[in-house]
Amino acid sequence: MQGKKSRWDIILIIFNLLAFFIFLVVLITFNNLALLLQEPNMKPVEYLATHPYIEVNWGTLSFIWSEPSSTIFVYGLGLITIIIGVVLLSKSSKTRKLRTNGKDKIKFVEMWGISLIIWGIGTLFAGTSYQAFFYELKCRGQEYCLWTTWWEIGYLALTVISINGMVLAQSFLRQSEKVQKTMKVYAGVNLCSYFLILSFGMVLVNRFLISFEMMVVFQLSSFILLFIQNIVEYRKTKAKVELSLIRIWIFLAIVMSVYFAYYFSGVASILWSHGIWFNANDILHVGLIGWMMFIYFKLIKELE
Question: What CATH number does domain 2-303 carry, 1.20.1070, 2.60.40, 1.20.120, 3.40.50?
């Protein structure tokens, strides 16, 4: 059985490395992102007229800082997430040295720590292109502003890597080798598939395939899988860690629901007409900061 398990691991690693290699080659060499423009088309001067910004002039350094308040929210989320990931990883490593029991639960928290670090780095990528340097990356020197950049593609890829890391983390809680193997195969196939989806989207200039919405839809199955699994396991074992995970996924569902409700409500436009910039992304990032803090306080208990 161990031999088969090792072969499966090797096969998954090879396929994911191949898919990642294809993704990198396309991203660096063959992507057609410059063909994708904002819809409706938006000139740089139109962007500046409809968004908050600060002109930064510091010595020889001069640039447009786009959406300053939104930048603070998204960079804050990224840094907080990285810090929480590092703390979880550090504390779980120290706990491993102090006790011999509960190794699987320690691995579970360690993998969560790694996943959050990757999530946080991806968030910094997102904030750089969607918020802080939107004008510099998408509008400066362009007749019409671009729709996306490689920073945003990197964010999507890192987020999906992080989510599949959460799937692997949960596999450490399962006693059944078959269930563990199934979850690893699922994570490997999911990640490999998404790398290829991004690659096709960049080559074919397909807006939806490289969109945030596509990423959410594609990864929804992962969260539903984990949520259902936690409910089933909690009903069988009454383990506190399963209840904590159920609450973590419910918290995330609430954040995403509020985000989409706010996005379609038109409230952001009304606020901006009164000089207040607080859009749907701000709602999402503030909500995710709360989610990350919730994750930390729930998972840190598993090391006590």
Answer: 1.20.1070
